[in-house]
């Protein structure tokens, strides 16, 4: 969900990454495996250097808009109090009713990922060369049917 991060007292450093950089963030579910964005393990995460980093420092009274799907890392530089205000902009039925904080994928995306996982499991029945060929065809089909043309 979209989010306003409101810094009431204290100071925080916020690092943001665009959803376009997801291929470089080493995602595990909806979170990045790269926990230390200031000193990432480049042997373990060599593509992370390609992710474009946006950074700001929030001080008392500052408000930062964090769009839905943007990855963020927050570092408290001193003790403080902050408030998050989230809001939903997709139709209500798009969200899991048990997800109070909006951390889960929208329902349609969650179902699509489950279907993809089943398709990949099915490909395991094929010899490696065939599995590779059909997996690449699947990727091309996803790119053709689902990717935005203006992502560059």
From TrEMBL:
The source organism is Taeniopygia guttata (Zebra finch)
Example GO molecular function term? tRNA binding
Q: What is this protein called?
A: tRNA-yW synthesizing protein 5
> Which Pfam families does the UniProt entry name for this protein?
Cupin_8
What gene name is given for the protein in this entry?
TYW5
InterPro entries per the record? Cupin_8, JmjC_dom
JmjC domain location: 1-104
Q: Which PANTHER family has this protein been placed in?
A: HYPOXIA-INDUCIBLE FACTOR 1 ALPHA INHIBITOR-RELATED, TRNA WYBUTOSINE-SYNTHESIZING PROTEIN 5
Q: Report any one BP term from Gene Ontology.
A: wybutosine biosynthetic process
């Amino acid at each position: 969900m979209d989010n306003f991060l409101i810094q009431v007292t204290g100071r925080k450093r916020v690092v943001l990454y665009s959803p376009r950089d997801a291929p470089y963030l080493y995602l595990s579910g909806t979170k990045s495996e790269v926990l230390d964005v200031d000193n990432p393990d480049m042997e373990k995460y060599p593509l992370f250097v390609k992710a474009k980093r946006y950074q700001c420092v929030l001080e008392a009274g500052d408000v930062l808009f964090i769009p839905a799907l943007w990855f963020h890392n927050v570092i408290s530089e001193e003790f403080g109090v902050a408030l998050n205000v989230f809001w939903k902009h997709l139709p209500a039925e798009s969200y899991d009713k048990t997800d109070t904080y909006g951390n889960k994928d929208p329902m349609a995306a969650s179902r699509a990922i489950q279907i993809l996982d089943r398709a990949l499991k099915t490909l395991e029945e094929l010899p490696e060369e065939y599995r590779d060929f059909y997996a690449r065809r699947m990727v091309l089909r996803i790119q053709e049917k689902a990717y935005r043309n203006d992502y560059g």
